Amino acid sequence: MNFLESDVSVSLTSIFMKFVGLWMAANEYEQRIRNIMVSYNVFAILFALWIQTMDIYNSWGNIRACLFSTSNTLSLILPLLKIFILLIHKEDFFRLILYMKRNFLELQNYDDYERKVVIDCKRKCTFFICFFTFLTMATTASYIITPIIGNIGKNESDRVLPFNMWINLPLNMTPYFEITFVLQVLSLYQIGVSYFCFDNFLCIMNLHVAGQFKVLQYRISNIADLIIKMEEKKEKLIIESMYYSNKCYSIFKKYIRQHQALIAYCRKIEVVFNWIALEQVLMFSLLICLDGYQILMANGDIKTRAIFSCHILSCLCQLLMFSYSCDCIIRESVSVATAAYAGSWTLLPMTISGMMMRRDLVVVIMRASIPCYLTGKGYFIVSLETYTSVLSTAASYFTLLRNNIESGNET
């Protein structure tokens, strides 16, 4: 079994990506299915946006109802923008997936330490993806379950839908109620899948790139040991030979090419996801603020608190997964410089290859001192500091919102 087949996070995420329609197609038939799924997904989100917009319009003046619909609207805008952005960069996105599959997941020439690093990356990915997927689907289920429980024991005229619909039809009567309920549930499920699948794949790519930087650190700092294992000779005989110097430089050039490939891969991730990173950070502060308001200021409404408790946990997990995976790339890419300096280059004889390797080593250290990172369209670098900054901003927004509402109620 290869790495891809045993990787739960990749397998699970690829299934959901197919539901959204943004996945590679093997033939024309699959491509038509993908196009249909993308269209259906966009239609489902637009349908939900129309419902929330009409609810805000008809509930204007009711601050709690408007904030409820506004929070839902922001949660709809997030996946819709991600779909449009990835459709624009679809070819580059697919190349990122194929490169990861061929060079990070399927290679079998890892030694025990390198294999342990890759397996550790897979475990982190599986934990984040499963946890975030569970919280998002729990939020989706809470939107569906709360009206079902609320409708128990009620007459037909008192039944409620997951979301208010302002159309001139008796929607609480059979069969309009059942048809509308099913349409909202189908739309809600598709939105839930769109909400987490793109972030899941970004997390997978980031953590595996960070893992490859860690593998590269190990290889650069242990060139001598790797040669000794390959040659099966005594260390002293190898170190004193010109052959050892030439062999070290040849392997070192191979690792330089690997380093260059990882840097290029990070740049491609930046091109594809920089707008998404900007959108995420800007939206998270507002979402966490509105979710916190719905939880703390719900006046005993258990249903609203249950929904937004799941939602805020999902947002916090999504933000942590997003910022942590980006922070891993920063830390591991910079650590390549330390690993290169800690290598066995001092044992090299002063041959032509030995001097060239020392010169190139300086270049590698200088380049590795500049970290690889993902930015929000160049405005900021995404790291774990982003997580604390977003939470601080959300708390400020919440305080401002609460004070404004309380002052408005007093007047």
Quaternary class: single chain
Gyration radius, rounded: 26 Å
Rounded mean pLDDT is 86
What about the largest sheet? none
- Helix content range of the residues, please? over 70%
Q: Please tell me what the overall shape is.
A: elongated
Beta content: under 5%
Residue windows where pLDDT falls under 50 for at least 5 positions: 1-5, 233-239
Please write the string of helix (H) and strand (E) elements: HHHHHHHHHHHHH
Briefly summarize what is shown.
This protein has 411 residues and is mainly alpha-helical.
Architecture blueprint of SSEs:
Blueprint: H1 3-6, H2 8-20, H3 28-58, H4 63-88, H5 90-105, H6 112-150, H7 176-221, H8 223-231, H9 235-239, H10 242-296, H11 302-341, H12 352-368, H13 384-410
Helix pairs in contact: 2-6, 2-7, 3-4, 3-7, 4-7, 4-10, 5-7, 6-7, 6-11, 7-10, 7-11, 10-11, 10-12, 10-13, 11-12, 11-13
Overview of this structure, please?
By secondary structure, the protein is an all-alpha fold. The chain is built from 13 helices and no strands. α3 crosses α7 (176-221), α5 (90-105) crosses α7 (176-221) and α6 runs antiparallel to α7 (176-221). The chain is elongated. The model is unreliable at 1-5 and 233-239 (pLDDT under 50).
Please describe the structure with a list of short key phrases separated by commas or semicolons:
single chain, about 400 residues, mainly alpha, 13 helices, elongated
